[in-house]
Prior knowledge:
Blueprint: H1 6-30, H2 39-62, H3 71-102, H4 109-139, H5 148-151
Helix pairs in contact: 1-3, 2-3, 2-4, 3-4
Amino acid sequence: MARLTWRRIGAVMLGLGILSWGVNLLISEKGSPLPVPWTVPLSLMIAAGAALWLGWEVRQYRSGKRPGLSPFQAVRTALFAQAAALTGAALMGVYGGYAMALAGYWSHPPRRAFIEAAILATIASGLLLAAGWIAERWCAIDDDDDDDEFIEISPEAA
Length: 158
């Protein structure tokens, strides 16, 4: 499993941000934009907390303080952390683009409420991205792991 890179995260965020900005710019000119539900930031914060909590358990396992953790759970946690980081990046782009598309309507109070909700969702998405990034780093195995010598088979042994 390859680690996440800032290039991949930035590409997802930028691509979806531009797409969201363009689509929402067209929609906002022809009609009323859709509101961002208040449950979005709450859900993203819960997911970020779960990523950090599970990542912390794997970090404790790697440091020898929690020997009973299943290695399969550690792998699942690493995959969840990557998914959380990529989801955070995607939603950060979507809600950021949405807020930028509506920024011209800041003086209109009903649309300002939509912009504020989108900004809050963007911030919560950024926190999910950061939590996933940190949790993935906690789950990563060092490159100098001693187990590699047992996996490799030399040509002489075959």
